Amino acid sequence: MKRIILLSLNELNFDYIKYYISQGLLPNLKFIIDKYGYRKTYSEKEYHLLEPWIQWVSIHTGKFYNEHKVFRLGDITQADGLAQLWEIIEQKGYSVGAISPFNAANHTERSGFFVPDPWTQTKASGEPTLEKLAVAISGAVNNNASNKLTAKTLIHLLQGMMKYVKVSEYPKYISLSANIKKKASKVLILDNVLADVFINCFENKKPDFSSLFLNGAAHIQHHYMFNSKAYSGLQKNPSWYCPEEEDPLLDTLISYDKILERLLKLDARLVIATGLHQEPHNEKTFYWRLKDHVNFLKLIGIENFKNVVPRMSRDFLIECNSEKDAAIIQSKLETIYSEKDQLRIFEVDNRGKSLFAELVYPNEITKGFRIKSDTSLPLALDFYDYVAFVAIKNGKHNGTGYLIDTGENFKEEQDEIPVTAIFDHILSNYP
Question: Which letter does DSSP use for residue 415 in this model?
Answer without folding.
Answer: P
